[in-house]
Write a structure and sequence with these properties.
Elements: E1 7-14, H1 19-29, E2 36-47, H2 49-64, E3 68-72, H3 77-85, E4 93-95, H4 98-105
Parallel strand pairs: 1-2, 2-3, 3-4
Length: 108
């Protein structure tokens, strides 16, 4: 965790079998004193509609708590294509590195 901006690194397949636990993990990761949350998908290999829905739900929940949301998306591959197709950038700030995402959330 970077001070005031928790970073959750997800790996493997983000699919229906993990959706409920991912939702819980992400919603618990950021407290009300934090500036926001970064979800790092650099090591994610697959994401289906359930994984996408979790990210949109988390974005909405963070917005209601007035917290920022950023997602680290690896360059190329399936995860980037999915993120682009579903327009995740409409609800989250997209970055190539966790450091860039944290800096952005902090307003730098």
């Amino acid at each position: 965790m970077s001070e005031g901006v928790p970073i959750v690194r997800l790996d493997g397949e983000l699919d229906i079998s993990r959706a409920a636990s991912l939702r819980t993990q992400l919603l618990r990761a950021a407290g009300n004193r934090d500036a926001g949350l970064v979800v790092d998908l650099s090591d994610a290999t697959y994401m289906d509609s359930a994984g996408v829905n979790v990210l949109f739900e988390v974005a909405e929940a963070l917005k209601e708590r007035q917290l920022e949301f950023a997602v680290v998306v690896p360059d190329g591959g399936l995860v980037e294509r999915v993120v682009t197709l579903v327009d995740l950038s409409s609800v989250a700030r997209l970055h190539r590195s966790a450091d860039a995402a944290v800096t952005d959330i902090r307003g730098g």
